[in-house]
Amino acid sequence: MGRELAFIEALRALASDPAARGLTDDCAVLPFGSETLVLTHDTMVAGVHFLPDQDPADVAWKLVATNMSDLAAKGAVPMGVLLSYQLAGTEERFLAGLAEALDEYGARLLGGDTVSSSGPQVLGLTAIGRASYLPVPGRDGAQVGDLVYITGPIGGAMVGLEALREKGPAKSSLAYRRPLARIAEGQALAPFVTAMMDVSDGLLLDASRIAKASKVTINLESAAIPLACPPERRDEALRWGDDYQLLLTAPPELALPLPMHRIGVVGKRQEAPVLINGAVPLGSLGYQH
Amino acid sequence: MGRELAFIEALRALASDPAARGLTDDCAVLPFGSETLVLTHDTMVAGVHFLPDQDPADVAWKLVATNMSDLAAKGAVPMGVLLSYQLAGTEERFLAGLAEALDEYGARLLGGDTVSSSGPQVLGLTAIGRASYLPVPGRDGAQVGDLVYITGPIGGAMVGLEALREKGPAKSSLAYRRPLARIAEGQALAPFVTAMMDVSDGLLLDASRIAKASKVTINLESAAIPLACPPERRDEALRWGDDYQLLLTAPPELALPLPMHRIGVVGKRQEAPVLINGAVPLGSLGYQH
């Protein structure tokens, strides 16, 4: 973990460019002619980011969805993807899921590479989008007094993974297997937000990232956070990712263009970047990977 | 091999878009606002694409150079890269080589992802460029009567890898460890060529790709092909990649803007896509991966 963070910091210094936010902020934003490019890359490893025996169609779907979710948080319009594919003998199912996911998001398969390796399957996807609104939302714009919103409930992927491990009915694991990137929501919200990101690593951790980048403290109201799991598992759900809801901050006087869940407020920087009901959360904030 | 080709064909069908040439033609070409994007992705695996004990700085250099070479063949101006990095405990050397290579090509590190895995190191790089000339050179434009040119000698990477394996002096393996992408040459040549690609998998194989895509036969004159290895190894050098010279076709009446090696002519499609001194080459044409 320390090693990885040090590497990311070194990469970030190498990038040495405020526009090159991709290494810490998921997407890179790059003016390009008359338009603005939004770029992101996610890599997934069998046994780390997905179950080794998972249906490759679901793995392909998730690989696309995670990248699309990064584009969604920027209000970007998906254009295409480049795929890095390690052969595994399960190409047919993978392709089926890939086709479904690309169709869902209107993204084209532009290119990529295939390789062979003796190790666990490593899959990479680069997604290319076009900014629909400038400035492209970032993590660093939350202002004291802003309200904090989320597009929908969390905890669904958590119980979905459990259902998948227990070989429950297919529908019970859908939230984990087939997450949805909020592309339309991201585009609709981009003109209104002061900060936005997708919740991929846990609400508390991702909220702390906005708070740190914006040099504020986000105070979440526990009871206001919508759940897609039993209420007694709220504390776990706050630290669990993979639901890909959008988390955002906006001035209190703004009427947002979509029904949203208001889950907290932005305050001056206090002893911790994120508080729950005014208190510092106990333990880990989420999934650090 | 068959499996991989079938997958690539399936991916290609999925792309189902003449502009989406990336899966077979290395780069994707995408109109984007007032400009044209050129995109490519290469993945490298330890033990397959580089020696497991190779200096990570050289591996980083090559990862960048191979992608830049794909951009060069399109006459593109490098803009930036996204890196997929599997942690290996050798981050410091990797970063050193990465910084050198990005500096060489004026490309920015825009983003990426880091992962952990128990398998051989898998590294991916997506490179983004801007087309300097339209139409962007492809593989399918060679015309009967065109002359065939190459930017420089081949065989240097072949003897360089041997020197590296034999732990020879560092300089003797330079051509293999630190290949150069011909970015400036690609931009200068793009307005003059009917087809262009980089020689990454062997001159015979890559020439056959241009010939097949253009539905012609390329007849190479063996003695005219410049070598960076002993002349008795000419046949091997013709089948060895990694030198990253640019291979191109252009009308005979055109004076090219750079000194080039004229190595053959384009003729009507005959029994094979590529001939040497009028004969069908024996054995494998190059490195199929």
Automatic annotation (TrEMBL), chains A, B:
Keywords of the record, alphabetical order, are: ATP-binding, Kinase, Magnesium, Metal-binding, Nucleotide-binding, Thiamine biosynthesis, Transferase
Name the residues that bind substrate. Answer: 49, 242
Q: Does the keyword Repressor apply?
A: no
Q: In which pathway does it act?
A: Cofactor biosynthesis; thiamine diphosphate biosynthesis; thiamine diphosphate from thiamine phosphate: step 1/1
Q: Which GO terms describe its biological process?
A: thiamine biosynthetic process; thiamine diphosphate biosynthetic process
Q: Where does ATP bind?
A: 112-113, 139, 200
Query: What family does the entry list?
Result: Belongs to the thiamine-monophosphate kinase family.
Q: What is this protein called?
A: Thiamine-monophosphate kinase
| Species the sequence originates in | Novosphingobium sediminicola
